[in-house]
Amino acid sequence: MADERNPVGWFEIPVRDLERARRFYESVLGLKLATSRMGDTEVAWFPMTEGPGAAGTLIRSEGYVPSHEGALVYFSVTDVEDTLAKIDASGGRTLNPKTGIGEHGFVAHFEDCEGNRVAMHSWT
């Protein structure tokens, strides 16, 4: 029997300044991120719950470099336009504005305060 969960189980978003990035994501997404240290690695944990979707962290560690290249993480949001306004007011910038994807809702891409390309999705 195939596993019925979504295939992504974890994500890490590289940062240079963990506190700045924590404040950015807390402001934009309205979440509280808990910080911790594991040796030379600093992380800020996105809230985790049981159920569909993936959890993850902001991470500052050797070998983790913010960029526009590579995998793209999509955050689920209630309202793309409202979230883009928070991003622009919090030190990020819109890369691709709200775009319809037919029956699958809407997406937008942004650059976070650390220089990562990140995205969001909403149904409205």
Task: Give a short synopsis of this structure.
With 124 residues, this protein is an alpha/beta fold. It has helices at 18-29, 80-89; strands spanning 10-14, 34-38, 41-45, 55-60, 74-76, 93-100, 106-111, 117-122.
Structure characterization notes:
The protein is α/β, with parallel strands linked by helices. It has a single domain, classed as 2,3-Dihydroxybiphenyl 1,2-Dioxygenase, domain 1. 18% of the residues lie in helices and 35% in strands. It has two helices and eight strands. Strands 1-4-3-2 form a four-stranded mixed sheet, with helices on one face. It has a four-stranded mixed sheet with strand order 5-8-7-6, with helices on one face. It is globular, with a radius of gyration of 15 Å. The termini are far apart. The mean pLDDT is 94.
**What is the CATH-assigned architecture?**
Roll
CATH topology: 2,3-Dihydroxybiphenyl 1,2-Dioxygenase, domain 1
Give the strand order, joined by hyphens, for the main sheet: 1-4-3-2
Number of domains: 1
Strand content: 35-45%
CATH class, named Alpha Beta
The SS-based structural class is alpha/beta
Annotation field: number of helices:
2
Q: What does the average pLDDT come to?
A: 94
List the helices and strands and how they pair.
Elements: E1 10-14, H1 18-29, E2 34-38, E3 41-45, E4 55-60, E5 74-76, H2 80-89, E6 93-100, E7 106-111, E8 117-122
Parallel strand pairs: 1-4, 5-8
Antiparallel strand pairs: 2-3, 3-4, 6-7, 7-8
Helix pairs in contact: 1-2
